[in-house]
Amino acid sequence: MIDVVSFSSVGCKDCRDKTKLGIEFTMAFQPIVDISNKTIFGYEALVRGPNNEGAFSILSQVNDSNRYRFDQAIRVKAIDLAKKLNLQGMLSINFLPNAVYKPETCIRATLEAAAEMDFPTDRIMFEVTEGEKVIDNDHLRNIFKEYKKHRFTTAIDDFGAGYAGLNLLADWQPDIIKLDMSLTRNVNSDNVRRALVFGIISICKQLNIKVIAEGIETKEECLTLADEGVTLFQGYFFARPGFEMLPTIPDEIWLLVKNRRAKVNR
After folding, report:
1. CA angle, corner 137, sides to 94 and 207, nearest 5?
2. pLDDT per residue over 248-263, tens digit each?
3. Residue 54 CA, distance from chain mean position
4. Under a CB-based contact definition with an 8 Å cutoff, are residues 238 and 253 in contact?
5. Which one is predicted more confidently, 175 or 164?
6. Residue 232, SS3?
7. What is the predicted pLDDT for the residue at 98?
8. Which of 53, 119, 122, 198 has the fewest C-beta atoms under 10 angstroms from its C-beta?
9. How far apart are alpha carbons 63 and 67 in whole angstroms?
10. CATH topology of domain 4-257
């Protein structure tokens, strides 16, 4: 592992210089909806190639030598595009927990970009994926402690699909968890998945953690979780990611869920 002290902090202008990074990329945006009031809670920024290539084609180019700079660049790019597209609500950005940095230095470019674009930090959510094994849990806790200091929202992505699971909740309580699609798929008809998901939802209610259900593809999946108190959803049932654009929710989708009152997940 490269010593973090060897890195100089990267400013937001430096992050926009793709020649230094050596990776061309842009973003697609997928809405996160709130069915309790039929609004868009926010959008997740998803890495894409310049010609809408999938995330894997970009992430496969990330290695120890460019991980730090790439992690910084995706934050700045997401904020730039969000401002350009007049994104309202929350901007959700994935970050690499094993990128080599100190929290107080890696956050500098994000703060600079947010200030330059006049994008409030309390409308930025950072997601750490549970699917990437975190090398140093204490370091991760320090990162989120620093993020909370600057009013960023914190989230665990792909919850239930990766390495840490409930251990992350025991050691550190984020603002939000995003239930992985491996758990939400067919939750309406799969008794085992339903029991597991309902248990996680119950724990989150007690810990005052919001739940976003990812990977929702059917009305039945949505309404089953809504009956258990989930109000925030993301998935193809509502909208696919839009390449450098902000998709809207079709009126017919709102009509499908409008008569089902969801309990508020506190």
Report:
1. 75
2. 999 988 888 776 554 4
3. 17
4. yes
5. 175
6. strand
7. 63
8. 122
9. 6
10. TIM Barrel (3.20.20)
User: Rounded to a whole number, what is the largest CA-CA distance in the chain?
Assistant: 57
Instruction: Write down the pTM of the prediction.
Output: 0.86
Domain ranges in the chain are 4-257
CA atoms within 13 A on the CB side of 127: 23
Closest CA to 216 of 201, 190, 241, 234: 234
Express the helix, strand and coil content of the chain in percent, nearest 5 each. Answer: 40, 20, 40
Residue found by looking up tokens 């310049």 in the block: 50
Please give the single-letter amino acid code of residue 88. Answer: Q
Token pair of 56 as six digits: 């894997």
| CB count in 10 Å sphere of residue 52 | 11
Count of Cβ atoms closer than 10 Å to residue 2 Cβ: 11
- Compute the chain's Rg from CA coordinates: 18
